Amino acid sequence: MMMNKKKNNFLQDMALSSRERLKKNKINRSEESLLKACEDIERRPAIELQKGFIFITEIKKSSPSLGEISNPEFDLLNQADVYVKSGANLISVLTEPSRFSGSLQDLNDVSKSFPETPTMRKDFLVEPYQVSEAFINGARGVLLIAAMLGDEILSQMIERAMKHNMFVLIEAFDEEDMQRTQTIMSKSDVFRKNILLGINCRDLRTLNVRFSRFEELSRFIPKDVICIAESGITKASEIKTLSKIGYSGALIGTALMKSGNPQQLLAEMRLAALEEQ
User: Fold this and answer.
1) Residue 119 is assigned to a structural domain of this protein
2) Is residue 259 part of a domain?
3) Does 66 map to a domain?
4) pLDDT the model gives residue 6
5) Which residues contact 30 (CB under 8 A, 6 or more apart)?
6) How many C-beta atoms lie closer than 10 Å to residue 240's C-beta?
7) What is the CATH number of the domain that holds 72?
8) Of 252, 235, 264, 244, the residue nearest 54 (C-alpha)
9) Which domain holds residue 177?
10) Mean pLDDT, to the nearest integer, of 75-103?
11) DSSP characters for 40-108?
């Protein structure tokens, strides 16, 4: 696997951990068996994201930088229910267990309980097998981190997602990632509408958040691509800023998980987005 050496600290640890989980899961279920099971699932139509600012709301119980972030009374399905009732377009579910306290069962439970709101598996995925894992657990999409993956494996994972009629959010951290992503997207032109570009303002070497990264990289956003701002978004005024500089949506996790009133916070953010349209 090719990995940018500049970003090989936290990402490398997560990739190694992901491969260990993958190895165990393959022992329990072969890829052939997994794909066979996927064929038995009724084919679902591709996600058509509505016009307007897209809100991807995230279920994230803990994080490496903050530790446990969910409230003491946290309930998985109650949190998802708040997101759905607040008009979330998508729900991102962390499935990484060691640093984010997530699981595929969380993804499965949310997907089954709220079938009308698409879910996305967020994890440190390294092989197509894990895309199919997401699909069989109800996800309509997956997040793939460009900095963790070489071009060939990234393309294979996108192809696997398209086989399952899933969308892909490709996460980028810098101009190099964005250029690579655009090249790969151009080669997958037939699936282009199902591929979103995400820009993360968190430096995964240090885990520090730098909101100004969104503006610095905004000039590289292709005009025909849905671009999602990720990390560090805490208030409605930031949604206004992101919309002004070319972002089509935001992935919001920590702020909603820590909020005493996530429904109100999301309502304020949605209103801010409407004011900029």
Assistant:
1) yes
2) yes
3) yes
4) 45
5) none
6) 17
7) 3.20.20.70
8) 252
9) 50-275
10) 96
11) TSPPPPPP-PPSS-EEEEEE-SEETTTEE-S-TT--HHHHHHHHHHTT-SEEEEE---TTT---HHHHH
